[in-house]
Write a structure and sequence with these properties.
By secondary structure, the chain is an alpha/beta fold. Helices cover 44% and strands 18% of the residues. The protein is built from 5 helices and 5 strands. The protein has a 5-stranded parallel β-sheet with strand order 2-1-3-4-5, sandwiched between helices.
Amino acid sequence: GGEIMLIDDAKILITDDSIPARKQLKDMISTVGTPVFYEARDGQDAINQYKRNKPDLVFLDIVMPNKDGNSAIQEIMDFDPDATIIIVSSAGTQSELKKAIEAGAREFIQKPLNQQQVIDTVNRFLEGR
């Protein structure tokens, strides 16, 4: 193994109920490559998209309508225990984050987003695949 998965080969699911927030994340990641992006607007949408597209990386807001991030994490992890889920949230409540990490999220990125942190995170998790 040891192959580095190029970001261009990656499938990335971005879940946020805000269209501008999804666009910002896509724009940041697109500065270093051209992955296939999927977008979801809430937790249930994320679960459906994950099952359909099996993305390599999932960015997930915690606070969303219909199903929050933590419910989505649990369902995605039940479907695929190897899922790589990264929480992106401004609502840095410790209890929510703790639940997210316990449910299987690998990483937390704070909003407002820092482009370098986003890119470093993408690179780190794609290299491990």
